[in-house]
Amino acid sequence: MKVFYASSADAESDKTKSENSWESVSLIIPYLKRHSLRLAFGFLTLIAVDVFQLIIPRVIKRAVDDLQRGVATPSGLLEYGGAIVLLALLIASMRYFWRILLLGFSRILETGIRDRMFSHILTLDKAFYQRRTPGEIMALATNDLSSVQLATGMGLVASVDAIFMGISAIAFMAYIDPALTVIAVSPMPILAFFTRFLSGRLHRRFKKVQEQFSTMTEFARSTFSSIRLIKAYNQEPFQAKRFDGMGETYVRDNLRLAAIYGTLFPISGFIGNASMLLVLFFGGRMAIHGSITAGDFVAFINYLFLMTWPMMALGWVADLFQRGITSLWRIQTLLQEKPNLHAPAADLDCPSAPIVQGSISVSDLSFSFHDQPSPILKDIRLEIRPGLFLGIVGRTGAGKTTLCHLLGRLYPVEDGKIFFDGMDVNCLPLATVRGAIAYVPQDVILFSDTIAFNITMGKPEATQEEIEAAAKAAAIHDEIIAMKNGYETRIGERGIKLSGGQRQRLAIARALLLDRPIIIIDDGLSAVDMETEHAIVRSIAGYLKGRTCIIVSHRVAPLADANEIVVMEHGRIVAMGTHEELLDRSTFYATIYRQQTDMSRG
After folding, report:
1. Cα separation of 198 and 179, whole Å?
2. Helix (H, G, I), strand (E, B), or coil: what is residue 197?
3. What are the CA-CA distances from residue 556 to residues 537, 553, 574 (Å)?
4. Element (H, E) at 565
5. Which residues contact 113 (CB under 8 A, 6 or more apart)?
6. What is the pLDDT of residue 6?
7. Which residues in the chain come in under a pLDDT of 50?
8. Strands lying side by side in the sheet with 423-424
9. pLDDT, tens digit, for every residue of 122-178?
10. What is the pairing mode between strands 389-394 and 548-552?
11. Alpha-carbon distance 512 to 508, whole Å?
12. What backbone phi and psi angles, to 5 degrees, belong to 355?
């Protein structure tokens, strides 16, 4: 199994191909099939509304003809009025049903795609999140998805309604007088030309608007999540100015988009009014000369009014569909993202046993990112027996965190490089490997919820006794119970109400509670003093007796009790042994230890 990354040129090529096609429509086809019965009834009620609307001019024609011939009676006119009222009631009831069925489908589709997006995003690995910002993803799940919903809701309804009503109205008009019908529809090719001409520009400009919206969303998110730093550096005016500049660009792009609307809709209205003018002139003359009756003339005008809506709807529907197809393509590019880490191939002879012992073997492991020519890790060899307490030390940039990420299966590795309980990681499902590891990263992630929720995130069924035992092992229990609401204290966004050390110890308590065979703590106690770190490390070692524990630290002294310590420098392991052995054999290790202990005494 080789590690590879798609080049940016290939990605751009794929995007261009998708953008220039309607392949993204395939995303909604399964929903159309699944809800075909609902859609069929919805369109039947929609067409029923159009049929009833088409009957009303015929009723009016008869009433006008009776008046013209002088045979109209009050009871007869009352019957005609009653028929129109009945048709209006039927139209209202059918309109209610098609709105429930068809617009309801667009909401079902919206929910389905949103759920699919969310589930898919959860499967993507770290490389994806280094390329795509949270703001961009949020824009796709809100603004873009709303455009898809409008296109598959009112856009689909308006297109079917316009096509059926337009064809039917022309048919009824042709039944009254074919020549007058040709005159009435003669301006329509002009509308078709302008609609096609402007639709491409509509697509490009709307795409630009959506991309700018993503940029603004990400900027706002990053600003609010870093608000304390911004205030500390007095950068509020600067950030506001930058956001204002983005807003001006967004408004400018929207105005350019509105310029197309401002062209398309007036043209549609002008064509409709031009048709009405032609009918009034030529149809009026025909009625005066007796070629058609007054009732036919009135009915013809009514049918022309009914046909004006489809003519006007062409521009609106084109807008909705262009917005929808652009947003659907943007969503498709997200759903086409593939994780670099894959499940084992079906044809591989892989064991299915879980990881229970916690032994780890690393053999000749080298690793580099696709955009960095020099490797971050070089020829790493490690044998970690079950229950070993391993410490890893080294300067910043030595490769300690990258090694932890690889052990935690956050990046792909080649076959035969990392083994858990003697099993190649590439033969094990990701869930199996990650389910055996309790990982505490450098950057602590906490949720805006209670302390209890944050500790039990990986084990929601944990009892209060288990929660408190984990908190005591992480030396945070006493501080929790000193708070007003204890374990039910809400800690704010990313734990803003807690100190850095409290956040780190809370994350460690969360990992300890999982009770997994392997625990990895990647510099998770950097925010506490050396004495507290030393005490916590000893407490953790006792709490995890019999389990494999890997602790990364910049400070040497707290790892003095480790069974074995690995010293890393420039991506390599330069020394390995117990604390006492390294003091004697490793000048680098001894120098760091003396410097840190002297600083702590000072």
Report:
1. 31
2. helix
3. 12, 7, 15
4. strand 564-569
5. 27, 28, 145, 148, 331
6. 38
7. 1-21
8. 377-384, 360-367, 418-420, 423-424
9. 888 777 877 787 778 888 888 888 888 888 888 888 888 888 888 888 888 888 888
10. parallel
11. 6
12. -90, 115
Torsion-angle region of residue 444: left (phi > 0), alpha (psi -120 to 50) or beta?
Answer: beta
Radius of gyration of the chain (CA): 35
Q: Count CB neighbours of 241 within 10 A.
A: 11
Percentages (nearest 5) of helix, strand, coil residues in the chain: 65, 10, 25
User: Which of 469, 458, 552, 464 is closest to 510 using CA atoms?
Assistant: 458
Q: Tell me how far apart the alpha carbons of residues 137 and 117 are, in angstroms, rounded to a whole number.
A: 9
Q: Two tokens at 246? A: 């983005």
pLDDT at site 246:
87
Q: Where are the beta strands (DSSP E) in 398-440?
A: 418-420, 423-424, 437-440
Residue in the structure block whose two tokens are 């944050």: 454
Q: Tell me how far apart the alpha carbons of residues 214 and 331 are, in angstroms, rounded to a whole number.
A: 13
Torsion of CA 263, 266, 272, 274, to 10 degrees: -90
Name the token pair of 46. Answer: 């929609």
Q: What are the distances in angstroms from CA 152 to CA 106, 116, 219, 321, 325?
A: 6, 17, 30, 8, 10
CA distance linking residue 280 with residue 183, whole number of Å: 11
Query: What pLDDT is attached to residue 67?
Result: 83
Q: Which residues of 120-140 are buried (b: 16+ CB within 10 A; e: fewer)?
A: ebeebbebbeeebbebbbbbb
Q: Is the dihedral of CA 528, 532, 533, 537 positive or negative?
A: negative
Residue-wise DSSP of 544-566: TTTSEEEEE-S-SGGGTT-SEEE
| CB contact set of 146 (below 8 Å; sequence gap of 6+) | 110
pLDDT of residue 312: 64
**Can you list the domains of the chain with their CATH numbers?**
25-335 (1.20.1560.10), 360-601 (3.40.50.300)
How many Cβ atoms are within 10 Å of 192's Cβ, its own excluded?
A: 12
**What token pair was written down for 354?**
């879980």
User: For residues 148 and 113, is the Cβ–Cβ distance under 8 A?
Assistant: yes
DSSP class of residue 450? B
Helix or strand run (H / E) with residue 290:
none
Q: Which residue has the tokens 């796709």?
A: 140
pLDDT of residue 92: 92
Helix (H) / strand (E) element for 101: namely none
Please give the helix or strand (H or E) that residue 187 lies within, else none. Answer: none
| Residue in the block written with tokens 């795509």 | 132
- Can you say whether residue 320 is alpha, beta or left, with left for phi > 0 and alpha for psi between -120 and 50 degrees? alpha
* DSSP SS3 for 186: coil
Cα–Cα distance, 348 to 155 (Å, whole number): 48
Quote the CA–CA distance of 271 and 366 in Å, as a whole number.
69
- Does residue 518 come out as left (phi exceeding 0), alpha (psi in the -120 to 50 range) or beta? beta
Q: In which element (H, E) is residue 520 found?
A: strand 518-522
- Quick one: pLDDT at residue 527? 64
